[in-house]
Structure formats: structure tokens, C-alpha cells
Amino acid sequence: MGGEERYIGVAERRARLALRHRLTPAARATSPEEVADALVALHGSDPATVYLAIGARLAEASGTVAATDRALYGDDRRLVRMHGMRHTVFVFPTALTAVVHASTGLAVAARERATLVKDMAKAGAPDATWLKEVEESTLAALGRLGQATASELAREEPRLREQFVYAAGKSYEGLHSVSTRLLKVLGVEGKVVRGRPLGSWTSSQFRWALAPEHPELDPAEAQAELLRHWLTACGPATEADLKWWTGWRVTDVRRALAAIGARAVSLDEGTGYVVAGDVDPVPPPDEPWAALLPGLDPTAMGWQERDWYLAPELRSALFDRSGNVGPTVWWDGRVVGGWAQRADGEIVWRILDGEGVGRDAETAIAAEAERLRGWVGSTRVTPRFRTPVEKALVG
């Protein structure tokens, strides 16, 4: 990571974002898999985000839903919805599932299983041996069924219906079912993944399926590989960005940076990093560009330090209280406003930048809004995490 540090300013960072995240018309992708490869991970906490994020980046967005369904649920399953960084649900290219599991999932999985066993013991529920029997029976049932809901699995393995009291006597006391907690553990352990939704592409109710088989990788090597992928897509990034995005300890981040031979560069925030061979200047896109990105979009949520593309004064309107970003309007590499969909299907937007963006920008943004309405059609999309500007636009 040695050598002279080249300065990469805001303009170049925005150029890299535009081109590598497939946001300019000339850089748009031809398939959902191409988008996922470019972004490394698509936020999946809100199911609609996956489709909206892909549609914003496709050259021909009209077939977004069908193409994404095929990639997620087709026989060859080129995209997989699973737990990943920071214990969050993402959609990954299938080829990356082993890397994600080893680099981020193993540590989370160990904590989740230990917590479940501890909680059940406190509640006087059956022990870990009993839980292991239920787990093996559940996985066998899922193998027979192909895909199934928790209720369908409970018909095959009735012990999944058993309940236990969580945090007895606490203000947050609750009644948990074995199925809810066990399937979550199996998910972070990489044994099961989310299958087809019960409803449309906006539904948050999913079936479960056995995870695609993948090799068991060395965690340190997997961390280096994941970091290499993400820095290629999102570099330069600071150490704080990397620690936040991965959810790793700082020692893991530093070890992975050294393993891939990352190069240090100078940013307005301090020292940043790019992959080896990515230090040369990146020219800006040929023309300014507009985009309407969904809530939790991986570009808007990609870095912890966001001042280079998101003015601090806009955050209170565009984020909820937990730090989840809502739908955003972009102009030439920066967030300038928010958007929403009304009950009649109209896509409405508002510029929050106090200085305005100019007539050309507004024309381009309006065209993107019409493009979005064209492929979303009669489907109504309400973000899972509501933000002030989105609620104001709808109301």
C-alpha cells in the first residue's frame, strides 16, 4: 500500500460512481446479473429495492421484473438473496455466495446460534441436541419440497411450531416460535436462502429454499476477495467506509487491504484506498446524467462518509431515524432531491437543493420519472422505510 498518494477529488469520485455503478445512459447494463456484478451487492431488506435498483441501470428497463425473476428464481439461479454484511439481507451474484458466507457470515452465524440456544435455555425450552434434530429434519423437508414457507415446513416438522418466551420480565418480552428463530440462524449459516415471494415482486413474504452448494473458503482469503470486488466497484473508500460496509473489525479490514495490495490515495476526508492498478485518472461521463434510485439503493448507501455526493443539509429529509435512505433523485453524481409514487401511479419528485439544478436537469429528471413509471406499470411501490420527503410527496 506504499507509494506516493495521488489526490482524487470529488469530481473524479462522482465520475467513477457514474460509470461503475451503471448510472449514465451510455454505461447502462443489459441484464440484472450485469448490474449485480457491477454493484457487488443489492440491498434486499426491501424486496422492491432489488428490482428498482436494477431497472434504474438497465438499458431496456421494460423487462426488469421478468428478467430479475429469472435471475433470482430460475433453474440456474444466477442471483441469490441471503444474509450478508452487517447481518443484512442482500442479493448477490451466485458466484460470490461462498465468499460472502466465509468473509462475513460465519462470525455472525456463530453468534446467532449461541444466542438462540441461550434464549431457549432461559425459557426452559428443549436443549441444543433437540434443536439440532429439528434443524436436520427441517432441512430434509426443504429438500423434499424444493421451496416452502415456514408454515408449510411446520406441517412436515411440527416441532417448528413450538414457542418460547424471550426476555421474560423485560419491557421487550415476546413470544418466539422455533421456526422464526431457527430459519434465521440457518440463513446466516448459509444453509437456506430466500426463495420465491408469496405475492408480487414487492412482497416481503418469502418461501425458503436450500442454499446453492458452495465450497468452504478460508475466512481471511474470502475477506480479501470480497474487499477486492467492492473496492473495484466503489473505490476510493476510506478505512471507515470499509469497516462500516463490511461490518468487520478494523484489523480484518487492514489485513484484507494488505492482502490485495490496495493503493492509498488522498481524499478530502483523508486517506482512501483503491485496488492495485486503479490509480489513473478517470474522465467524467460525456454528458450530465439523471437517475431516480430507490430507498436503500446500494449507491446511496455505499459509503459511511457521504458528503462528496450528498449534502449534509439534505439528510434529514431523505433518511429515516434509523439511517435508512429513501428514494433519491440524482443529477450528475450528487443527490439533489427525493421522489415517490402516488396511489394513481404517478412518479413525483422534489428538488431539495437550495440553489436549484437548472432546466436541463429538470428535463432529464422528468424523463427518468416517466421511464420509471413506464416499466413499473400498475404496481404500487411503498418503501419499507418511509422518509419525510417521500411521505410529504405522497400526501
UniProtKB/TrEMBL annotation:
User: Which Pfam families does this entry report, sorted A to Z?
Assistant: AlkZ-like (PF06224)
Q: Which InterPro entries match?
A: AlkZ-like
Alphabetical list of PANTHER family matching this protein: LMO0824 PROTEIN (PTHR38479), WINGED HELIX DNA-BINDING DOMAIN-CONTAINING PROTEIN (PTHR38479:SF2)
The identity of this protein, by name, is Winged helix DNA-binding domain-containing protein
* Organism listed in the record: Streptomyces aurantiogriseus
The lineage, from the top, is:
Bacteria, Bacillati, Actinomycetota, Actinomycetes, Kitasatosporales
